[in-house]
């Protein structure tokens, strides 16, 4: 019965949604899933799901657990424990979306362009995270809230957000790396995270901007809370030189991690301080 349940679940997933696998690591805090998706969570040899979890799980083998995403969009809790510690994961189920549509619940999405050079990582999302006002302060990771990465377009609620698992893990790994490089930072400040194609077009950005695909962020360090990049090079001035310090650390991060993508430097302007763009597009780009 146990074996047949696994076969049935996997077959169901193959016909109704994607089957994916992800490894349980220190940087994994959220799982962004499609409705009814079956996810294989690896590196879980000595972990079991506790009774306070909101989602169904099943042991697949000595090192893997199946996570069954609920049918309804929303935020759910998965708590895993062993004899030493517990790990709480936020399971986020997306609301399905047809990419041929321009709106979702009267929220303007716009049309996604054809994938850049045919790359699959530039495909339109098949669902979005539904956000109500009470969700804006929800922690997606220990250092990232919904309000940090949601699109800035003006609208009522619900709003819709797209961010992927690798994008969220990249932010946590990047923060740890920057801290280990000796830069004082407790969390990143955000200029921009997700952008709908509708909003992206309204601000005149390129039609294939990576901000539309869930793993691009414009970041700066603001430990003094003045809304601008800190004096990272210690010269007593706030200039492009401070941006260069962070840019070089971001480059070093990509060379020493599994993440690969774009990094861009932006000088201070009248309406914002300097910042650095980083994304996980899968190939190197620099500007």
Automatic annotation (TrEMBL):
Transmembrane segments: none annotated. GO terms for molecular function: carboxypeptidase activity. The keyword Cell membrane does not apply. Keywords: Carboxypeptidase, Hydrolase, Protease, Signal. InterPro entries: EF_Hand_1_Ca_BS (IPR018247), Peptidase_M15A_C (IPR013230), Zn_M74/Hedgehog-like (IPR009045). The keyword Signal applies. It comes from the Bacteria. Residues 1-20 form the signal peptide. Gene3D superfamilies: 3.30.1380.10. Residues 191-223 form the Peptidase M15A C-terminal domain. This is D-Ala-D-Ala carboxypeptidase family metallohydrolase.
